[in-house]
Amino acid sequence: MAVDPGFSLAPARPRILVTRPLETAGPHAFEQSLEAAGLAVVSMPLIEVKTRLLPALDWNQYDWVFFTSKNAVRAIGQNIWPEWNTSLSIACVGPVTEQALKPYGQQARFVSPVYDARSAVQYFAERYAVAGLRILWPCGNLADPHLKTGLESQGAIVTACTVYETCLKSHFSPPEKQTLLEPFNLVVFTSPSAVEAFRQGWQQLASGTDFDGPVACLGSRTAQAALQAFGRVDIQPEEFTLAALSQAIRQYFETKEPC
Questions:
Q1: Which of 74, 156, 158, 183 could form a disulfide with 133 if both were Cys (CB 3.0 to 4.6 A apart)?
Q2: What is the pLDDT of residues 28-79, one digit of tens each?
Q3: How many domains does the chain have?
Q4: How many CB atoms are located within 10 Å of the residue 15 CB?
Q5: Model confidence over 137-193: pLDDT tens digits?
Q6: Chain centroid to CA 168: how far?
Q7: 24 near 48, Cβ under 8 Å?
Q8: CB of 88 within 8 A of CB of 200?
Q9: Using an 8 Å Cβ cutoff, are 7 and 183 in contact?
Q10: Cα–Cα distance for residue pair 83/87, rounded to 1 Å
């Protein structure tokens, strides 16, 4: 199959490849916002999140449960949400993770204003005496360990519990292969896992051709992965939200002169 590594702007609608998993419920606001801005969105999820069976836990032995992603919140909620005792508090990294609590009738006591685990530890330690706290950390199999190591460096006792798995897409159907190799004006990544899945897929299908197309990333870890894999990041909003990413992408194309 011939590979066209060129990424020149199309005369009609710029084509955007979005690699994030689609939400299981509700409108796809991110994709819709790009479409509304006149961009042609092609969705190809490159990772899949699978909930694990929740292990038996004695919730009463913990002081806090610390959520670093909405996937962890959903993994707990899809199993069985525990009846929290009066001493067990909920902490969240970022407002989006906090919002994921609402369908389950839960409320966070602490919400880090940033989406970075290292910064969240700093904010948490500024408000609470961390030493000796018993903290449960429900997480994914590829989670950034810095929350655990950061809290432990402050004297907390942190128990990591893997409640979901992030699986990289490794097999592509003929139509997916064709889509992956078509020229795009931008490829959007929202996780390091998606970057790695795309890199592996491109290596399999592109016959040694290096990927050199424009890249948009959500979050510093995703951007670091893209820089390592492709040597470039063209769009990276300071705020780690899909709304901010959508706005940055729209502004990026507004500044482009049509061919």
A1: 156
A2: 788 999 999 999 999 999 998 888 877 777 888 899 999 999 999 998 887 7
A3: 2
A4: 18
A5: 999 998 889 999 999 999 999 999 999 999 998 888 888 888 888 889 999 999 999
A6: 13
A7: no
A8: no
A9: yes
A10: 11
Unique residue bearing structure tokens 């689609």: 22
pLDDT value at position 25? Answer: 40
Task: Name which residue leads in pLDDT, 80 or 97.
Answer: 97
pTM of the model: 0.81
| CB burial readout 213-241, b (16+ within 10 A) else e | bbbbbbbebbbebbeebbeebebbbeebb
Length of the chain (residues):
259
Whether the Cβ atoms of residue 124 and residue 91 lie closer than 8 Å to each other: yes
> Mean per-residue pLDDT for 228-245?
92
Q: Percent helix, strand and coil across the chain, each rounded to 5?
A: 35, 20, 45
How many helices and strands, by DSSP H and E, does the chain display? Answer: 9, 10
List all residues 6 or more positions away from 22 whose beta carbon is below 8 Å from its beta carbon: 28, 43, 45
| Segment 219-223 mean pLDDT | 89
Residues 202 and 243 in one domain: yes
Last residue of a domain, one of 133, 167, 201: 167
Q: How far apart are CA 15 and CA 185, in angstroms?
A: 5
Residues 187, 220, single domain; the answer is yes
Local structure of residue 238 (DSSP, 8 states): S
Same domain, 142 and 246: no
Task: Decide if 215 contacts 184 (C-beta within 8 A).
Answer: no
Report the alpha-carbon distance of residue 249 to residue 164 in Å, rounded: 30
> What is the rounded distance in angstroms from the CA atom of residue 172 to the CA atom of residue 188?
18
